[in-house]
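Hey, I was hoping to borrow your eyes for a little while. No rush at all, and the record is pasted right below.
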Amino acid sequence: MTSEPGAVSETFAFACRNCGHTWEAMFQVMFFTDPTDAAGLHTQEYVDEDGVAIRSPLADAVCTRCGSRRVRVTTPGGGRPAHDPAG
């Protein structure tokens, strides 16, 4: 992977369908290109506010209050769903 990835900040809003808790969190999305891949494979990694690499918050959201995985992820301000793993 390249040593100098591109990065953008993304903020997501979360709503727990179990306890009703809502919160927002900002992540850095780091984009990498594999220079050894003839097809120019691109990957991305999410980094939380503490600088820790994490799985995508869209696929692995957990309620910060009750620990439930029944979390709806939306754009900030209660906009459209970014991803709804709870269906």
Q: What stands out?
A: The CA atoms of residues 12 and 75 lie 5 Å apart. The first strand starts at residue 6 and ends at 16. The beta strands are 6-16, 22-33, 42-47, 53-54, 71-74, 81-83.
